[in-house]
Design brief:
five-stranded parallel beta sheet, Rossmann fold, about 210 residues
Length: about 210
């Protein structure tokens, strides 16, 4: 089994192709659409879920040349000719349930806004990856989406002010140790933002001699 290099791809505006019209194809296409990709789905008999997506739907079987110009492709039905074309055209290809034919594998993902937790077993056990995902979904609720936004906003503000990196890290640690997440979990977003500002002010005041 090959060792995989974990990476997140920026697919915004990139041409991506999904082969197959089953529910799995719809799921894969939806993920690509959510990532901002320009998606083409090729399926002779597309399922209803696939037809509802904002993709370019080509209602026929795969033909040689369908992957031309694509950045990435996902084959949900296992077409040998597609593997050949992807190799010739330099297209990253995932063949569902066939790791040996894949240029990349798709991890199980927990998504909370901009926070994404990816789990992979290198194709050894999709069931285990799914079980770990379920645990993480329980541990990391929707409050983490807003927490990620808050920390991103604070990071940009501190960087504009030229706050040293070590002081920034202290701010982030103090925020994670505060009750901000508890407030977000309760749905008290406004209170969480006020508390965030208070924690940042307090930490910066404490670290002021280090920021000169």
């Amino acid at each position: 089994m090959s060792a995989y290099y974990p990476v997140f791809l920026d697919l915004a505006g990139q041409r991506c192709v999904v082969l197959g019209g089953n529910e799995a194809a719809a799921h894969k296409a939806r993920g690509l659409v959510d990532a901002g990709a320009d998606v083409t789905a090729i399926a002779a008999d597309p399922c209803a879920a696939l037809e509802e997506l904002p993709v370019r739907l080509v209602r026929r079987q795969y033909q040689r040349g369908d992957l031309a110009g694509a950045h990435l492709a996902i084959d949900t039905i296992g077409i040998p000719e597609a593997r050949e074309e992807a190799s010739a055209e330099g297209v990253l290809l995932n063949v569902m349930d066939q790791p040996a034919q894949c240029d990349f594998i798709a991890p199980a993902v927990v998504k909370r806004g901009d926070l994404q937790l990816a789990i992979s077993t290198a194709g050894e056990s999709p069931f285990l990856a799914g079980a770990v995902r379920a645990r993480l979904e329980a541990d990391y609720g929707e409050e983490w989406a807003e927490m990620t936004r808050l920390l991103g906003s604070i990071r940009r503000r501190l960087r504009r002010r030229g706050v040293p990196l070590e002081t920034q890290k202290r701010v982030y640690r103090d925020l994670l140790a505060s009750n901000v997440l508890d407030l977000l979990r309760e749905g008290a977003v406004a209170a969480a933002r006020r508390q965030t500002s208070a924690v940042v002010r307090q930490t910066l005041a404490t670290c002021r001699p280090l920021s000169r």
